[in-house]
Amino acid sequence: MGKIKDETNWENFLDNYFDVFNPITAKHRYLNGTTITYSKNGIYVWADLDKAKMKIKKLEFGREVHDKFGNNQSNWVKGIFINDEHGYIAFLQTSFDGEDGSAFEFDFTNNTKDVITRFLNIPCITGWEEEEYSLNKTEHYKVVVKLGQTSWTILLRHFTEQDMPLLGDRLSLWFRVKNNDAIWNNSKRTITKITVSPMNTY
Predict the structure, then answer these.
(1) Range with the poorest average pLDDT among 131-140, 162-171, 182-191
(2) How far apart are CA 61 and CA 57, in angstroms?
(3) What's the rounded Cα separation, in Å, for the pair 195 and 187?
(4) N or C: which end of the chain has fewer CB within 10 A?
């Protein structure tokens, strides 16, 4: 265990929280802030902080999978912090272009630390469940995520549909999922159930 830091900003708070898990930690300073990644046991948590480290700009987690070359890459879906007192969490499709704006930001105060602790407990202590839907074991088209009594259904978009700029893209996605879920595709459909173990798994 490392030296406990004075919790005067989000970086110190996060370092203190993760100290007990002893993860691999990577930090990157850039012009407008700092990104931090904590990873262990196939789980990652990624934070983007403002320059003063007093505001979370984005906080997310997910499970790591490996490509055919053995390199780590993100899974289909991720859990992301949202500034909404009714839940503070949503599961979304992983994309390169992520989510930005006030809905995902959170200021550092003594009161807000408890909210972030509860969020971090999901990937680090609790874990979650995923159900991956595919046709012919190759065409993944939907993921259902379960966390306690709450569930999210994520319809997987193709790369060209990620930003959803056109109504036609939304309709195409809706029809594709409806077709894949139809009874005539029952024999082709595979549902892979995954219990995601948290970071503190030994």
Answers:
(1) 162-171
(2) 14
(3) 24
(4) C
As given in the structure block, the two tokens for residue 23 are: 């993860």
How much is the pLDDT for 67? 66
94-118 burial, b at 16+ Cβ within 10 Å, e below that, comes to beeeebeeeebbbebeeeeeeebee
Every domain of the chain and the residues it spans: 10-126, 128-196
How many Cα atoms occupy the beta-carbon half-sphere of 100 within 13 Å? 5
pLDDT in tens, 61-75: 999 876 666 666 567
Distance, CA of 105 to CA of 96 (rounded, Å):
18
Q: Read out DSSP for 160-192?
A: GGTT--SHHHHHHHHHHHHHHHSGGGTTTEEEE
Can you tell me the mean pLDDT for 171-189?
Answer: 86
